[in-house]
Amino acid sequence: MRTDYPCADPGRRVRGLRMDPAKPPPPLKMSSLTSASCEPPGPEPQEKKPLKPCCACPETKKARDACIIEKGEEHCGPLIEAHKECMRALGFKV
Fold first, then answer.
1. How far apart are CA 79 and CA 63, in angstroms?
2. CA angle at residue 20 from 15 to 23, to 5 degrees?
3. What is the pLDDT of residue 59?
4. Which pLDDT does position 8 carry in this prediction?
5. Which residues are annotated as a binding site for Cu cation?
6. Residues forming the annotated binding site?
7. Phi, psi of 27 (to 5 degrees)
8. What's the pTM value of the predicted model, to 2 decimals?
9. What is the pLDDT, as a whole number, of residue 14?
10. Rg for the chain, CA atoms, rounded
11. How high is the mean pLDDT in each 10-residue block of the chain (94 residues)?
12. Integer angstrom CA distances of residue 59 from 34, 68, 69, 77, 79
């Protein structure tokens, strides 16, 4: 039996109280911080990070890149222009 653990011996004093082995202890109250969420606290939401050009318009970028690889840049003008328009709509100067 562990002697350093106060609940190991029901007759041992804990915080000046005598533990009665026949009666269960009262329920513990959790602080509002621990009961609010089990998730670890994340970073505080600050200003939204600006969108990087590499992450903008993934749909048009994927179609454009696939076309360029398969057919060559000279045959993919409409897809290239569609991607540029999408980038401009998000505020990028292309």
1. 7
2. 120
3. 96
4. 54
5. 54-55
6. 54-55
7. -65, 145
8. 0.50
9. 53
10. 32
11. 53 58 67 52 67 94 97 97 96 93
12. 42, 14, 16, 16, 11
CA distance 10 to 20: 6
Reading the block at residue 16, the tokens are 């000046």
pLDDT for position 17: 58
Q: What is the pLDDT of residue 42?
A: 56
Rounded to whole angstroms, the Cα distance separating 12 from 6 reads: 7
What is the per-residue pLDDT for 80? Answer: 97
3-state helix/strand/coil string of the chain: CCCCCCCCCCCCEECCEECCCCCCCCCCCCCHHHHHCCCCCCCCCCCCCCCCHHHCCHHHHHHHHHHHHHHCHHHCHHHHHHHHHHHHHCCCCC
Query: Distance of alpha carbon 33 from its chain centroid, rounded?
Result: 19
